[in-house]
Each structure stands twice: as C-alpha cells, then as structure tokens.
Amino acid sequence: MSQRAAGSRLALPFPGRTQRVLPGFGLSLGISLTFVSLVLLLPLTGLVGQLAGLSLGEYWAIISEARVVASYAITLGAAAVAALVNAAFGLLLAWVLVRYDFPGKRALDALMDLPFALPTAVAGITLATLYSSNGWMGQALAPLGLEVAYTWVGIALAMAFTSIPFVVRTVQPILEDLPHEIDEAAMTLGARDGVAFRRVILPHLWPALVTGTGLAFVRSLGEFGAVIFIAGNMPYETEITSLMIFVKLQEYDYVGASAIASAVLATSLALLLAINLWQGRFIRRLHGGN
Amino acid sequence: MSPLPLFRRTLVVSAIALGVVAPVMAEERELLNSSYDIARELFATVNPAFKDHWEATHDDTLTIKQSHGGSSAQARAILQGLRADVVTYNQVTDVQVLADAGLVAKDWQQQLPNNASPYYSTTAFLVRKGNPLGIESWDDLAAEGVELVFPNPKTSGNGRYTYLAAWGAAERAFDGDEERVTTFMRDFLGNVKVFDTGGRGATTSFIERGIGDVLISFESEVNNIRQEYGSDDYEVIVPPVSILAEFPVAVVEENAERNDTLELARDYLEFLYAEDTQRLLAGFNYRVHDETVVAEFADQFPETELLKVEDVFGGWDVAMETHFASGGRLDQLQRR
Questions:
Q1: Fewest C-beta in 10 Å: which of A64, B133, B167, B201?
Q2: pLDDT grade for A187, boundaries at 50, 70 and 90
Q3: CA distance B70 to chain A (A)
Q4: DSSP string over A40-109
C-alpha cells in the first residue's frame, strides 16, 4: 500500500509549478544516468572486464562444461515451474486483493511484500526446516511419497517464495484501474462468467501478467540464498547455476565465475528485452485501432 | 519528510555514493582477526584472555574485532582490500593465497612453531545413538545404504579434508591400487545425502533436519556438537587412520604495517602457543602441541594415525590441482 500512497503523493503538483514536478530535464536526466552508471553499469562493466583475458574457446569451454550445463537445466526448469505457478496463484491473489473485501485483507496485502523484505537465506532455512523429513510439512508429505527438501521440487518452491511479489505487484495496479463495471457490462451483454474473464478482463491484464511472470522467472534464475539451503546441492541433480559461480569463486577462479555469471546475465537481459518488446507490440495492437 | 533542496540532496547522495566518509581516528588500539566460520566461540574465549595479557604490559586499551566466514571467502575479502591484521584459518591454501599476493610473508610457515599451526585437528565421525550401523572406519562409509553428510569439498575446506582423508585411508587400505581407490571414492561420494556449502550447514542438516547416518567434520566440531546437543544422542567415532588438519595462522604484514599493529599482531599469534591458551584450545576439542596440556587432555583425544597432505598428496598445491580444480579427480568421480 505504501508504494501506491507514495506514488500518489509524488504525482501531486507542487503549488506554483505548472508543468513538471522535477525541475530541469538536463539535470534530472544527468543525475539519473550517473546513478544508473554507478549502480548498474559500473559493476556490469567490471564483470565483463574480468572476461577480457579469455579466448572465445576458453569461454565456451567454461560455460559448456557438463556439470555447469546440468545446472542450467535445473535452474531454468525450476525457475519456469516457479514462474508458472506464481503466474496462476499471483493472478488469483491480485484478484482477491483488489476485488474483494474481507477481514485481514490489509494483512494479506502487506504479507505480499514479505519475500522482498525477508533475507532470502532466512527464507531458505525456514523452508528447509519446514519441508525436511522431520519438519511439519515434510512429515505430512512423506506418507504420500513426496519429498520436497533437497530435491528439485524444493528448489522450485524456494524460487516461487522469493518471486511471488513480482506477479502480484505488477498485476494488482492494473486490476485496480480496471473498473468493476466492465465485467458487469460484459455480463449484461450476455457473456458468461468464464467468457467475461477470458475475453474482457484477461486481455487487459495480459501484459502485466506476462511482465510479472517474466520478472519472477528472471529473479529465480539468479536466486542463491533461499535455494542453497533447501537444494541439497548434489552434482547433476540439485546444483543451481549460482552455486557453480560460488564454487568458482571458492577456487579463486574469478574469470570462470564471471564467465558463468555473464551467461546468466545475458539470458536474463535477453529475456527482459524480449518481454519489453513484446509488451510494447501487444499494447500497440490492443489500442491499435485508434 | 520535508523535501531538501535538490542541490543539497544531490550533495548528500554523491557524498554517500563516493564513500567520502571521514576517517575515524581511534584513540585505542584495534586488531582485526579474520577467521574461519566455526571459530566464533573459540576466539570469543581467547580474545579476552589476550586483552588482559596485552593490557597488563602495555598502556593501551585494546579492542579485538573478529570476522568469521568460509575461510576462502575471508581470504578473498583480504585480497580485495579488507584490512585484517591477522588471519587464523583452517586451510593452508587460504593463507598461501595471501602469501602469493605478497600480503603475508613468503616464509610464513617458518615464522611460528609447527608450521604456524598453533593447534590442529583431524576428521572424525558423528553417528546417532548406539552407532546402529557399526561405523568404525572409512571403509564402513562406502557400504551400500549408509547415508553421509559432510560439506561440499568444492566450497568448504572442511569438506576437502574429508575427501582427502577418505582418499588417503583408501589408498592405504588398498595398497595404492588406483582402481579400487576410485571405486571406493565413487561409492563414498555416492552415499552423500546433502552437500552443504559449509561445516555449520552440514551440522544443521544432520542434527536439526535429521538427515543421514554419519556426519563427517573436524574432530573438534563433532565433539563440540555432541557436548552441545546432548552426549546421549550422538557418538563420536575417530577412525584409526585420518588426516592431519592444520589451522594455520599468519600476520597480514602489509595491513599490520599500515595499521601500525605489527608487534601487537605477532604477540597475538604467539599468545596462541602459550600454555594457558593451549589449555583453552584443548577445551574446545582442538589437539594442541604443549606437552603439559597434551598430557592433561590425553583421554579426550584417541590415538590415531594422522596422514599429512604433504606426504600423501605432495602438498596442497598438488592436491588442489589434481583433485579439486575444475575437471579434477573430484569432478571425474562425480561425473555420471
């Protein structure tokens, strides 16, 4: 809630100012660019700089080593599952939070930000405690033959935990802007519930949902703290790519670590870019007629 | 919050961003000890003793700061500029990295007795009550169905000792027959249930999560665990053959010179060899060198043959290169 409250305060025009809230396009752009350079570009340049000594062949050998490749498959797979599960449940959560009033709604809303606030290692330890064979959930699931902690499922679970806010928080504002009358209108025009949702509401949410899911996915690719405690870290089975980077660092192999990191980075960047491009096109198509 | 004028806000932000923080002038003397993960309790006991010892003969107020973490990560922090005055690690290689970078004297292992290792330990087993699987030595650990927990040799010095101890013991048992050693190691590694990144993580998995039949860690750690979690529920097994785990210490001379703590740092490390300190160390289940203390604690440390990394593997450099580097023996053994 606080985010939105702050947003609306920012949007209030200061008395006497008519056009822009912040003065001077040059100054504000300059500061923004400096900030982006310091906080984002400089570390990234450092990362790429580490790779300078590598030939293309060496680079490829590092990032295509069998064990590292196995870790890509595990990380991508678990992140995809986590993102899809979050897409479904995140949408539902956002819907419930926007469209219904119920006791504890504020609490639930605040709870959505918890994964952002909680140190991910704490999340990992908590999940491992809960789902290990002597934990509450672990004991309950054991008779069903389900093992979560120290398996691939545990990795996906930890990723889902840390990335759920991305979906909820991107879909929620769009849903709030969508007037309630729109579904009523659809229904008075003869659409049944399912159809009204699918053909009237979902198209509006689609870009936000895809963005949120994409962000959740990319976030999961890089997750370390939460996953490491519940993964078991068995080679070829439950080793995530972040662990491979960590292992390289343990060996004082900065270059190897940077090489793998750059592969993760490139994947994430490509994905984010693709989502942004797609979203731009989608929105243009949605409003294309006008 | 009333908005600060933009100019002032920019100034504040840039000041923070550029890290322009006025240097703090300390009236008192300070010493930073960069140490390994599971040494917290140990130095929390040793440091006050040293503070008294130092202040009795000097006109200073001494503050000793501790930094703990995986010892490779700790060494990396110093390489990248952390101004620790002394290092107390559980890995010869992590001190050697600093020596190679010129931060620690080249002959650091000769500067203090016993290879600059004031105390040592070995790798031992912790099993559950009554030792139901009858675990006595390394070859019992490769049997089918025995579940093991120890930290990942790729990320933990503790784990590397375990790996080398198992290898050394197998090499002895099979008279150096490489094929049988390889088969043994494959089975041994195949029995691992969870690979935590560090020693304490492995302890948590074994104790709190109830995973595995055997926890393999430093003898000191398994004894401390047993004392802490109840001596009735666990048993410590020290195998007849294991590995010598040295805990090397060194002055980070470049930093100590800059911090003007050279004398203090040297005295601190020598203090670890004093009889009373050795008694403290033995109290934490580390094996020590002082003969009086060794005699006092004789029952606590079973006689066992300790293999040296230098003798069996030709030194840490070779061991790291052959076994733990990318594509090395460990990678080959874990390949499927």
A1: A64
A2: confident
A3: 9
A4: IIHHHHHHHHHGGG--HHHHHHHHT-HHHHHHHHHHHHHHHHHHHHHHHHHHHHHHHHHH---TTHHHHH
Test the A interface: residue of B326, B329, B333, B335 with most A CBs within 10 Å: B326
Q: Which of residues 200-219 of B touch A (CB under 8 A)?
A: 201, 208-211
* Distance between CA atoms of residues B276 and B292, nearest Å: 10
* Subunit contact B324:A235, Cβ cutoff 8 A: no
Tell me which residue in A133, A234, A249 faces B195 most closely, judged by beta carbons: A234
In the numeric block, the tokens 């606030």 are attached to A117
Q: Where are the beta strands (DSSP E) in chain A?
A: none
Answer whether A2 touches B (CB < 8 Å). Answer: no
**B15 reaches A (C-beta below 8 A):** no
| Dist. CA B103–CA B100, nearest whole Å | 8
Please tell me the predicted confidence (pLDDT) of residue A145: 86
User: What is the maximal distance between C-alpha atoms in chain B?
Assistant: 79
Q: Could you tell me the pLDDT band of residue A203, with boundaries at 50, 70 and 90?
A: confident
Chain A residues within 8 A of B17 when measuring between CB atoms: 35, 38
Model pLDDT for residues B144-191, shown as the tens digit of each residue: 999 999 999 988 888 999 999 999 999 999 999 999 999 999 999 999
Query: Which residues from chain A sit within 8 angstroms of residue B196, using beta carbons?
Result: 233
In chain B, residues with a C-beta closer than 8 Å to the C-beta of A129 are: 208-209
Which residues 6+ apart lie within 8 Å of A60 measured at CB?
A: none
Q: Which residue of A has its CA nearest to B14?
A: A35
Query: Counting beta carbons within 10 angstroms of the beta carbon of residue A41, is it exposed (0 to 12), middle (13 to 18) or buried (19 or more)?
Result: exposed
- Closest approach of chain A CAs to the CA of B186, in angstroms? 13
Instruction: Give me the half-sphere count of Cα atoms (radius 13 Å) on the Cβ side of residue B92.
Output: 26
What distances in angstroms separate CA A65 from CA A236, A250, B195, one per listed residue? 11, 18, 20
pLDDT per residue as tens digits for the range B124-151: 999 999 999 999 999 999 999 999 999 9
Residue of B269, B218, B270 lying closest to B244 (CA atoms): B218
Question: Cα(A248)–Cα(B214) distance, rounded to whole angstroms?
Answer: 28
Contacts for A116 with CB less than 8 Å, ≥ 6 apart: A165
Beta strands per DSSP E along B232-332: 234-237, 241-243, 245-246, 249-251, 287-288, 305-307
Looking at residue B291, its amino acid is: E
Structure tokens at A275: 């989502």
